[in-house]
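sanity check this:
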Amino acid sequence: MKFEDRIILPESDLSISKLVQALSPQYLTASYKLYWLLGILDIIKDFPSERSINIEFDDVIRRMIALSWYTILEYRLNFGASDTLEKAVHYIESNTELNRNSCKKEIVELLENSADSKIIEIIHSFSKYVPYRFLTTFIPKLNGIPDHKRNSVIEEASKTTPDIPYAISGKTCVMDLKWLEYLYLNNSIIKGWVQYKLVSFLQARNPNVPAITEKFEAPHQRNLEAARKYWTEYISFNDSRDIFSHQPMRATEISIDHFVPWSFVLHDRIWNLAPTSRELNSSKSNHLPMWEKYFKSFAELQFRAFKWHSNKTPSSKVLEDFILIKPGIAGTDISRESFFSILENTLQPAYRIAANQGFSVWENKG
């Protein structure tokens, strides 16, 4: 039994088992139902209001797009060949002033006001099926009904079927008040449950990608002070050259760069960090540095800094990052060849997976 299947939703006299069934793997060929429920939860978290009782299809769909935005653009997760939500996000990002760092409010507002016929069609295309198919497990006797007739059958049944989350009226979900109260009072718990379902869905389509549980929302604020101190101290006492430009570095002017992008690894381990100039860090952004051109320079700088810090402060907490990848790396007697091999074996698999996920390769052209 998977972990997310052991999560028990809060008890109620409502048909919670049918909600669980709606998001079970056999009913999830795409991400739509997951994001549909997340969109509804996002709207009704401020219940009660007219908007949270009569929920427009388009309002939920705009939130589906906004809630999947970072997962698709910043973290580059694959939603599967048949999932058009990923394609929709890429189109909107490429054809509007929005970018991968746009917040949910900006995305929703732009989609509300857009006159782009393609964006209007994208939203309309999701409204044709998702609101109806989400209710499938709540409505009996749908077997044998042709697909082109299902929407009208589901809409009519939603108005008379007891214990159903919402009735469909035109392009509006009229929330059942008991379900509305349940979803409002247990909003955070249900959101967490849906996200665990989403983890399972995405992990199957992104094998070996790390930290998927952290890739649903905007990146958190990172604290690189320990890394900055580590590299500043080293550069202050050792002549060092930038791994991308080969220019001398000054300790007071460095910026800390993730060799394999942070938006893929989602950690700040010192063995994936290197000092560089602010300009080059900005230029590289969340791209992959060309491995053949930069890895040896990166590994050499890492090795020299590791040896220097190991001699100076062997009990430094920052050095524990190296022990996590190879317990035997601790100490000052490790050879350059062994250190390079450990670092390569640690970084190269992540680098290759990130490349397969769509992270582009960068080279300093300066």
User: Anything to note?
Assistant: The mean pLDDT is 91. The radius of gyration is 25 Å. The beta strands are 54-56, 166-169, 172-175, 254-258, 273-277, 288-289, 361-362. The first helix runs from residue 16 to 22.
